From TrEMBL:
GO terms for cellular component: plasma membrane. The chain crosses the membrane at residues 12-32, 52-72, 84-106, 112-132, 139-160, 166-187, 199-218, 230-247, 267-291, 303-325, 332-351, 357-379, 400-419, 457-478. GO terms for molecular function: transmembrane transporter activity. The keyword Cytoplasm does not apply. It is found in: Cell membrane. Keywords: Cell membrane, Membrane, Transmembrane, Transmembrane helix, Transport. Residues 14-483 form the Major facilitator superfamily (MFS) profile domain. PANTHER family: MAJOR FACILITATOR SUPERFAMILY MULTIDRUG TRANSPORTER MFSC. It comes from Niallia endozanthoxylica. Pfam families: MFS_1 (PF07690). Belongs to the major facilitator superfamily. EmrB family. This is DHA2 family efflux MFS transporter permease subunit. PROSITE patterns: MFS (PS50850). The lineage of its organism: Bacteria, Bacillati, Bacillota, Bacilli, Bacillales. InterPro entries: EmrB-like (IPR004638), MFS (IPR011701), MFS_dom (IPR020846), MFS_trans_sf (IPR036259).
Length: 504
């Protein structure tokens, strides 16, 4: 156990350094998306190639995150933080000086190796530093800082790309990351008692192939289609490896990733709800930019500004939601939030060519408000039921499943939209030829394609509404969780109070 965690007072200095480090890694991710077209043009590459900057990052994260449960138990917070920020800073420098795509991709993957350690490490420190009755408020402040990154990221990125070279995105991050690394080097002093555990090589191999295969397969399916043999084979290999990985963990005395966390019903329920929400949540992030830029012709800068109020509201609500969670638990918050999210997502399934910009801003803000009531309370309630020794495994499991469900959700939504668009386009073409007796002009075909794409987007939002409704049903089964040890030893805090009375 870290010496830092032994005192009653939470290690605020340690948490502050970790929060700033996590913030900068989050901000880095949101900066790059808007810059992809500029990178394509400058490096003369196609969409399928540039997508690897996102897919590669996701793959490395998917491979690294399952190992973090072992790393957190084996090494001190100082060792892991310096390693994570060192890798992230090195990757940022490599990406910033790159003039070839494969060097840029290498930089992104080195960044990912550092970023993947940061989030589970921070979550674990938060869980062990705060008592259960204050954990919601702590997680709320944590959420406010982290959610501010995706709030400002797209707008900041749009401004930088408009005025400077895309490499400035990395040059902007590099000095900040280097300063955080130096601050961490001098401030973090925690030490770790020697822990005699070893990483099982076969588990690492099976985990890497399993999670990596699933992430790559589903990410590729969104671009290449489900009929591509490479997609099907990769997913099949991923599933088989993952089954073998789970069986291997069950046999080990000290597993790399302990699937025993699913013996705790609130953690299992929170995982399912969070995965469903991740799959549905990507509909807004994926489909709205397509609608506003491709169909409505709104500029990238205005598209980023359209999403800004919702993102800021989501960030601002985080500490409020945290305090409410401490007072009333996660069930009411989750039900309310899911109902708001489902209604606002349904409203997005009714988009037209005349839908106003302000309507999109307001509905997106309402949707983000709903999401702010769900994600943190549900996941924190699930983690609260775990015994302390399983915190690293719970946070690693949650972060891994977030990556996988995000990839699966994106692939499924892209596929649904593509199939629906093609079906509607085919029907419109057939009707036009049947009525006019000749193939429509290129201009008419473009109008038909816009109509078909809009129909595809609306249909996909409607499917997302149904998925969210499923999560809403599951939310009614949430109960306020107490740690497993507390259920055995007595009520939360009872032993601490008796100890203090005896000491007095």
């Amino acid at each position: 156990m870290d010496q830092t965690m032994n005192s009653d007072r939470p290690p605020y200095g340690l948490i502050a350094v970790l929060l700033v480090g996590a913030f900068i890694t989050f901000l880095n991710n949101t900066l790059l998306n808007i810059a992809l077209p500029s990178i394509m043009k400058d490096l003369n590459i196609e969409t399928a190639t540039v997508q690897w900057l996102t897919t590669g990052f996701m793959l490395v994260s998917g491979i690294m995150i399952p190992t973090t449960a072992f790393l957190i138990r084996k090494y001190s917070v100082r060792q892991l933080f310096l390693t994570a920020m060192g890798l992230f800073t090195a990757g940022t420098i490599i990406a910033g000086i790159s003039h070839l795509f494969f060097i840029l991709l290498l930089g992104r993957m080195v960044q990912a190796a550092g970023a993947a350690i940061m989030m589970p490490l921070l979550m674990n420190v938060m869980l062990v530093s705060f008592p259960i009755h204050k954990r919601g408020t702590a997680m709320g402040v944590f959420g406010l800082i982290l959610m501010f990154a995706p709030a400002i990221g797209p707008t900041l990125s749009g401004w930088i790309v408009e005025h400077y070279d895309w490499r400035m995105l990395f040059h902007f991050i590099t000095p900040i990351a280097a300063i955080i690394l130096l601050v961490g080097f001098f401030m973090l002093k925690d030490k770790k008692e020697k822990v005699n555990i070893r990483l099982d090589s076969l588990s690492v191999l099976l985990s890497s192939i399993g999670f990596g295969g699933l992430l790559y397969g589903f990410s590729s399916a969104g671009n290449q289609g489900w009929d591509n043999p490479q997609v099907d084979i990769t997913i099949a290999i991923g599933v088989i490896s993952l089954v073998l990985f789970i069986l291997r963990q069950a046999k080990l005395e000290d597993p790399m990733l302990n699937f025993g966390v699913y013996k705790y019903p609130m953690f299992a329920l929170s995982s399912v709800i969070t995965m469903i929400m991740n799959m549905a949540m990507f509909s807004g992030f994926l489909l709205l930019p397509i609608y506003v830029q491709t169909i409505r012709g709104i500029s990238p800068m205005d598209a980023g500004l359209m999403l800004l109020p919702g993102a800021l509201l989501n960030a601002a609500m985080s500490p409020v939601t945290g305090r409410l969670f401490d007072k009333i638990g996660g069930r009411i918050l989750a039900i309310t939030g899911l109902a708001i999210t489902a209604i606002s997502t349904y409203l997005f399934s009714q988009l037209t060519f005349e839908t106003t910009y302000m309507y999109l801003v307001i509905i997106h803000a309402i949707r983000m408000f709903g999401l702010s009531l769900v994600m943190m309370p549900v996941s924190t309630n699930g983690l609260n039921q775990l015994p302390r020794r399983l915190y690293p495994h719970g946070t690693a499991m949650n972060n891994t499943l977030n990556q996988v469900s995000g990839a699966i959700g994106t692939a499924l939504l892209v596929t649904l939209m593509s199939i629906r668009t093609e079906t509607v386009m085919s029907r419109l073409m057939t009707d036009a030829i049947h009525q006019g007796g000749a193939r429509p002009t290129a201009e008419v075909q473009q109008q038909m394609l816009s109509s078909a794409t809009l129909d595809g987007i609306n249909f996909t939002f409607f499917v997302s509404t149904i998925i969210i409704a499923l999560a809403l049903v599951l939310a009614f089964f949430i109960k306020r969780a107490t740690p497993a040890e507390d259920r055995i030893e007595g009520k939360p805090g009872k032993m601490n109070r008796l100890t203090k009375l005896a000491e007095n």
